[in-house]
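Notebook entry, structure prediction.
Reason for the run: the old model in the group folder had no record of what sequence produced it. Starting over properly, with the input documented here first.
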Amino acid sequence: MSKHGRILVAMSGGIDSSVAAVMLHEEGYEVIGMTMKTWDYASSGGNKKETGCCSLDSINDARDIAVSLGFPHYIVDIREEFGDYVINHFTNEYLEGRTPNPCVLCNTHIKWDSLLRRADKLGCEKIATGHYAKVREENGRFVISKGVDQTKDQSYVLWGVSQQSLSRTLLPLGGLHKSEIREMARVRGFTELLKKSESYEICFVPDNDYRGFLKRRVPGLEEQVAGGEFVMEDGTIVGKHRGYPFYTIGQRKGLEIALGYPIFVTEIQKDTNRVILGKLEDLDRDGMMVGKLNMVKYDKLQTKMQTVTKVRYKDPGTPAEIEQLENKIKVIFHEGVSAIAPGQAAVFYEGNDVIGGGWIESSFRQ
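New structure, fully documented this time:
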């Protein structure tokens, strides 16, 4: 009988999830490792060698860790549910003129649900992942907070995990720095893990060419949307573009327009196939509306709150006042925020704690 009970650990084959499994094993948990096969790049029509969390090498690395420590390891094929939800959403968002965040969707709607379903079948009370974040119970709610290593913090991508799922979740790496994780792997002889480079690519677009992916995913798309107008903020038409889905808010490179000064995409108009351009300062917005909320620290905001709000993963955050209006949150920034992209996630912080988050629906100037 284990000291702490049985736990299902998501193992991608990388150093973080591997060390998380090792830590829990050494603490006395009855660990079961599970690697989820979410995607194979060959089916996307790409020609790059498959790498990252879905590759055969990564799956074998996860299994090797489990075998060396004597705990079971399973491989689960979730490509169908991943594709139906995450990839269809990714494609549809670009076709709607928005910029999707598939990693948040994968974490909150695919990986956690898949893990918990398998945990129930395997008799596991808890699940664990190698995310750099913390979770605790406070005032009857389960609260996500930033990891100690601010350079690796992943609380932003976890805002959508439900209270029920958080109640069964352990995040062993939240109180550690990356350097400590690497040292733990070295001391235990898992030197192969130290050689792995970290990837920030979308797993099903490992060449980072989302435009090529869309073209393969939607045959004839390029012909359908080509020839729309590039329009300046003042209404001046300055050229033709390749189609609105192939541009993102804040984009500067690849516009193929020379006006004698730097220009950026400031807005995408799907209905007219127009891409609006402007100067750097034209990207600034004073506020935004956020919908499809998941509240974490509080069930609902009763009054306006002062927060730090992040509009993208690597965003350090901006002080803002937020107000919940039924099922949406209105955000007013204390200073302008550049390149807010509808379709991205917004996450609200009180200190290190995640208040909640949602999907950016629109931004505005006051």
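Summary: The radius of gyration is 22 Å.
The old model has been moved to the deprecated folder.
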